[in-house]
Structure formats: structure tokens, C-alpha cells
Recover the amino acids of this structure.
């Protein structure tokens, strides 16, 4: 059974940093795409960043490019999201997702989410 478990969320002031983790288990993710999404109150879930588990290739939403960095540790079966220079608009529940083709809001596997709150 595939499980994705996020951790690392919390409360931070604007301009601060947080590092989210996504621990993956239940299968090998070779060939999968893993990604981060976020959803704030009253808004739809949106794409943040993604990484190819095998090649390490990455992609980012325009709103976070240059501030967030996605990475993975194959040995630990974990994915990370380093978030720097956080802004109040980054406040949301952050989810990790995994899919054998491309991550989207219809991805095959999802974690339960971790809350990130950025105060101004």
C-alpha cells in the first residue's frame, strides 16, 4: 500500500524559511513523478513543484520559482521542498503527490497535507 506522509509545516514570519518533507513508502518510485501542491482557503488546489524520481529533473510554478527548491533522496525514499523568502500568499496546506506519468490534481497518490502559515 502506497503511503505519502508530509511533515515540516508550521508558522513562520514573512521572509523566513521552512523545509517540508514527504516520506514515501509502499513501492519503488522509479519512473514516477513526485510533486508538491498547495491549497488555501477558498481556492483550488494548485501545482507548486515537481521532480522526476529517476532523473531528478524539476519544474516549478511561476509564483515560487527562485524561492522554492524541490529535491529527493532516493536512499531515504523522501522528497523535500525547501521554501525560502516566504510570503503571506504562501499560506496553505501543502500536499505531496505521486504519479507514474505527470503530477496533476488527479495524481494517483496523495499525502494528508501539512499546514504552512506565513504571518506578515
Amino acid at each position: 500500500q502506497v503511503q505519502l506522509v508530509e511533515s515540516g509545516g508550521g508558522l513562520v514570519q514573512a521572509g523566513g524559511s521552512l523545509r517540508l518533507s514527504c516520506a514515501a513508502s509502499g513501492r519503488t518510485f522509479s519512473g514516477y513523478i513526485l510533486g508538491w501542491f498547495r491549497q488555501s482557503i477558498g481556492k483550488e488546489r494548485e501545482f507548486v513543484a515537481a521532480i522526476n524520481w529517476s532523473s531528478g529533473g524539476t519544474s516549478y510554478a511561476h509564483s515560487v520559482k527562485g524561492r522554492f527548491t524541490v529535491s529527493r533522496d532516493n536512499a531515504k525514499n523522501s522528497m523535500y521542498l525547501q521554501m525560502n523568502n516566504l510570503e503571506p500568499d504562501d499560506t496553505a496546506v501543502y500536499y505531496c503527490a505521486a504519479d507514474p506519468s505527470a503530477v496533476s490534481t488527479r495524481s494517483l497518490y496523495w499525502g494528508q497535507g501539512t499546514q504552512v502559515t506565513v504571518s506578515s
